[in-house]
Description:
heterodimer; A: mainly alpha; B: 342 residues; mainly alpha
Amino acid sequence: MDPVFLSRLQFTATTLFHFLFVPLTLGLSILVAYMEVRYARTGDETYLRMTKFWGKLFLINFAVGVVTGITLEFQFGTNWSRYSAYVGDIFGSLLAIEASVAFFLESTLIGIWIFGWKKLSKMGHAMVMCLVAAGSNISAMWILIANGWMQHPVGFIYNNGRAELNDFAAVVFNKFAILEFLHTVPASFTLSAFFVMGISAYHLYKKQHIDFFTRSFKIALVFGLVASIWVVIEGDQHAVHVTKTQPTKLAAMESHWETQKRAPIVLFAIPDEDNGRNRIEIGRVPGVLSLLGYHDINAEVQGLNDFPKADRPPVLPTFLSFRLMVAIGTLLPLLTLVGLFLQNRLVENRWYLIVMMAAIPLPYIAIEAGWILAEVGRQPWIVYGLMRTADAASPVSGIQVITSMIAFILVYGLLGSVGYYLIGKNALKGPQAA
Amino acid sequence: MILQSIWFYLWGLLWAVFFITDGFDFGVGTLYPFLGKTDQDKRMMINALGPLWDGNEVWLITAGGVTFAAFPLVYAVMFSSLYTALMLILFALILRGVSFEFRGKVDSPAWRRLWDTCIFIGSVLPAILFGVAFANIFQGLPLDEKHLFQGNLLTLLNPYGLLGGALFLCFFLVHGALWLSIRTDGALQQRAVKSANGLWPVLLVVAVAFLLYTAKATQLYQNYLEQPVFFAIVLAAVLGLVGIKIFLLKQAYFKAWFSSALAIAGATFFGIIGLFPSLLPSSINAEYSLTAFNASSSPLTLKIMLMVVLLFVPVVLIYQIWTYGLFKGKVTQEDLDLEEAY
Lengths: 434, 342
């Protein structure tokens, strides 16, 4: 059993699982903070009940998100020790900054928020949730700066047989990382908005707590509308930058083999990775890939055949995850736009409520597909162009990794089912009576 | 050289703060099935940790992160060598963390029993394993010339390692019992005080045994013999240990808890000072050891990280101390009645 393969599998599983919970934390913390600030300012009890109801769902989700995050930091040491030794000078400092600057803030203050209702003033207590929201999002920023460096390493020199930092500002203001942050965060906000809208839709469909859930829905609607449109616009910028910095990822995203001008996209393809072509292509539109990558319909786009086979990412998962992400990412702003027109007649438009309930998983799928695209598309590199994933693993045995992986699957299976059972149970129960 | 030495001691300091803060959480979690006779007792115990445990655990993340940032090679070798032990700690911490949140969410005895078990295992296992890990670091890991670990989990379970596990467990049990003495009242508090009193002599015996065995099993005392002034740290640990008993007799539980914190800090630094400059000594050949000088990050990274730590750790301490101030009183029925309480 190959420890590199197993370690990759374990990291994939633990990251994707962790990322089921993180996006909701990022967005719902802001929505709950908004509700509570409104309560503190107006004294309107409905806002308090909203804070408590959505806050409870937030806390269950937060608990699973926090505990599964620890695993990720330590896996760099346990499973990717050669990577850690080679790039720790840069990458390690970003994780340490994340912990001291942001993670402390959210983890300490969440305790005050849960237990401090009677100990702080209304506004003081609301401010604590604002700081939790700030801490979570700043934490995401440092993690994405770290991931951005793996995608597009900058600000380093080779020294003492490893990559050493020589320009900290270049690492922190790495354009790739900034774009990644500006993409992931609104995507998380979108997911949170659809979570709130979907659960609200359920209660509106059952015609219960109508005022409560109409107001919840409308708050999330505005948030989701702005965020989901932002994701799409920013995603376009992101693709342009990927074209420049990660040509193999772009080519794999489109299953694009031959370098050409007026490069086409295909709606669907089955790549033939051995022979460097597509076995089946459906819906070929010339020029669109050039337009996507360079904002110029005649631009030349490099194909995968320009790169040695050893430097190409697995094409099929990269291609499919991109399509899945884009398809859902396009649908979500449309759904919020419809909501904008129907917002004062929600209860009457029962079809829309059903659609919004069914839409809860969609942003989850899109955001996971986005991560698969980002990480699988970067292969075979763990740090793009600098270090190969195959050279990065720890000198541990396959038995050790497979044992820990089975344990992760069991424990995470338990956490996931209990977490979502509790979220579901409390969501369906609805808020406490006024 | 100076920068690397500063980082060496900062590294030790972060671990010490983690042991002081999350240490009492581990202690309370281990005492949980023994002192929590009723559901009310149990809720009292976990709500005594409720507002604090999560922030406490971040000291571990920070200690880990700082190891990664300042001594990447140590991070790589330490965590891959101790693979199974660290994984066990991670699973324990994961289960402990969600158990607090999950336990009260479904009204069923079987449900609560499941998470009660997880709280106990999730607390006792890290308490012992951190001790085993650090005792093994004190005596040196079998690292070859390529810093590859020539051993397995069983290598770590040697007599000195196990004694280290027992020492940490005793420290955290007393520390946790004292925390409960502060934050609970009634019969539960009396049981907590009784446990602290009963466990104290055990801690004392294990601590003395550990100090003596250290002379045989490790090279830690060399630095002390060269610089006898360092024995002040051992003295501080002893003062802390004695202080626990004195303040327990005076029923001054806060002071007893601080004494216990001093003892834990002293014990951690007893090891850290003895190790210097090694972070991971090799038991095969001293030349294969990872030290602050051969395993550190570049001077630029060390400087930037020093600024970050000097700027933010005091800020963290300020808001954590504020949090402790908010929640130093007894857990009341009103606290337990909160919708969000555990």
